Amino acid sequence: MKEVKTKTTRIGSLKFPNESKITGRSSTLRAAFIKAIIPTIGPNHPDFNMSDYDEGLRLLKHTNGGVKCSYCGERDASDLDHFRAIVKSKFASRYITDVYNLVPACGLCNQSKGGKDWRLWIEGKAAKNPKNRGIENLDEIIKNLDAFENWSNSKVNTLTQEFLDSKEFSEYMQSCENLIASFYEFQRNAEILKAKALTNLSNANEKDFRS
């Protein structure tokens, strides 16, 4: 089912709170289902390769004195961002969480990039991307990201197509779609209750002090 986006309303320059919709959580739920089955090869995993992690940092020109954001080079890195998105257009992208798919990033760049392709994002029109924030050494940053991408392309782990086409995975994702479909019934019930609530408002002048 298609997710309906709520149009933002403003009073002058101020953003008015949007009406909440249960169905507005569909994309979040799909992403959660996918992320829940994505393997993570982290520091406590036997296949974690610290040498390759350090090599990735070297290619991105991070120093031992501190790690800056790989995308803007301006702010301190606070996260390890998925260089290649693990969820793409509502589907698993095949990529997982490992050192070949993670780069240090600041919260601002991480949030702005989201699941976009790094190059399209960094050179695109997003208001908070490095280009539109006026980052001066962007060409050098892109060169470093290119080096990381070229190095990691032959090393990054991916889910097999056999797994993505498997009956188990298909049934798992169908259970997600069934849950989302139920949201629309819940939303219809919510709209009925909202209409009723609108006719049952009170204020201080009516001396209704129920909590």
Q: What attributes does this structure have?
A:
211 residues, mainly alpha, two-stranded antiparallel sheet, 7 helices, 9% strand, flat
Write structural notes for this entry.
Helix 1 (26-37) runs antiparallel to helix 7. The chain is flat, with a radius of gyration of 22 Å. Strand 4 (87-88) and strand 5 (91-92) form a beta hairpin. The chain is built from seven helices and six strands. The strands form three sheets. A two-stranded antiparallel sheet has the order 1-2. A two-stranded antiparallel ribbon has the order 3-6. A two-stranded antiparallel sheet has the order 4-5. It is mainly α and 211 residues long. It has helices at 26-37, 50-59, 107-113, 118-122, 138-152, 161-164, 167-198; strands at residues 9-11, 14-16, 79-82, 87-88, 91-92, 102-105. It folds into two domains: 21-38 and 160-191, no CATH class; 42-158, no CATH class.
Helix and strand topology:
Blueprint: E1 9-11, E2 14-16, H1 26-37, H2 50-59, E3 79-82, E4 87-88, E5 91-92, E6 102-105, H3 107-113, H4 118-122, H5 138-152, H6 161-164, H7 167-198
Stretches with pLDDT under 50, minimum 5 residues: none
Number of helices: 7
Structural class: mainly alpha
C-alpha geometry: flat
Tally the beta strands: 6
Tell me the β content.
5-15%
Helix content: 40-55%
Order of helices and strands: EEHHEEEEHHHHH
Alpha carbon gyration radius: 22 Å
Strand order of the largest sheet: 1-2
- Biggest β-sheet description: 2 strands, antiparallel
> What's the number of domains?
2
> What distance separates the N and C termini?
38 Å
Overall pLDDT score: 90
